[in-house]
# Entry
Amino acid sequence: MEIFAPYELTHAKKLDATDTLPAQRANFHVPQHAGEDVVYFSGNSLGLQPKSAENALQSELKDWAKHGVDGHLKARNPWVSYHERFTNGLACIVGAAPNEVVAMNALTVNLHLLLVSFYRPAGKRTKILCEAKAFPSDQYALASQVRFHGGNPAVDIIEVAPRKGTHVIEETDVETILHERGDEIALVMMGGVQYFTGQWLDMNRITAAAHEAGAVCGFDLAHAVGNVPLALHTWNVDFACWCSYKYLNSGPGAVAGAYVHHRHVREDVLPRFEGWWGHNAKRRFLMEPNFESMGTAEAWQMSNAPVFNMAIHAAALDQFTAIGMDALREKSLRLTAYLEQGVAAVAKHNNARLEIITPSDPARRGCQLSLVAHEFGRELFEALTDAGVVLDWREPNVIRMAPVPMYNTFADIARFVQILKSATLPH
Ligand SMILES: *Cc1c(COP(=O)(O)O)cnc(C)c1O
# Structure
């Protein structure tokens, strides 16, 4: 079958060979299909395994075998302070100061712990403003927090939805709600990058509007971290949390992260659920009865570090530190545009009703494109899967595709466009 010139494999390979940031493909394990690498577009769901993960994990297992309990101090990366390995790397990735971030727990757990501190309904100000159709776990977390405080989610959760006939949340609409009902809103809590549509919200603007209305503002960065450049501190975001198994490639169920703005860390007056790993590290083992805060985001940390899981996280983060988010973002813009144009070319050529519901403005999205194939979505998804493309289906009708700048290539996209073209041929 003839294929559009820009999507000839030879052309795509030339793009790969001459790109200013070569794909780190060789540093990852890529699943196989029919003797070839799959086209892996699911890095927004579970990132690929860095080849360095195995040694990183082995080395902690060996230290445990060799030292037993003494590994807390004698391991090559002493376990007692293991979480400190992440401070600088995470601070760079989310745009924060080192004392504003901590790697701990899992995402939904961190969301709850931060809501304990940051959602404090009082008087008339009881409501949470969030995006409509947020990721289910976030919806459950918000609703259960509202009920925990004696509220009613049907009343106390206000959702901002895309305008009729569109898929994109307008920041203006968030501002309007905050203008009109700001005195009822205690908290604005949204996904930085929306998991379903791939829309990247203007987090700076939303934070400013929330603060102007007297509300607190936090973000779930599950789909933003490692995908788009972030400046949480500069944007004045109050708190945020994320997982590290999506774009951060740290493995299934890997340790998550949390950010708390310096002003809250410094003042240290917020209510908080506390544990011994949030206690002043210098006095932690004096086993004193009263909690003395670390005075950093680590004050929210409760338990000692899950070292095996963190060993992989550290290996995965090293790759981000080595390249930097700016270079990754530049590459990401090139890859996603290439994919977007390929889908458009196929739609036109095959007269197929393929609609990308992700904003077309690159400034309003990360790498993910969400595709709706009208009338034949499920069949198309299955045909793509059978041909060796890994992507995911999100009810009711979306195929999510994420060309990840760390390891995806122009050749991946060219192969995909070829597969999409045959899968959408008019019957
Ligand atoms: C992936 C994702 C989660 C998953 O939560 P876990 O606690 O890691 O299981 C939650 N919220 C959002 C927005 C997500 O994208």
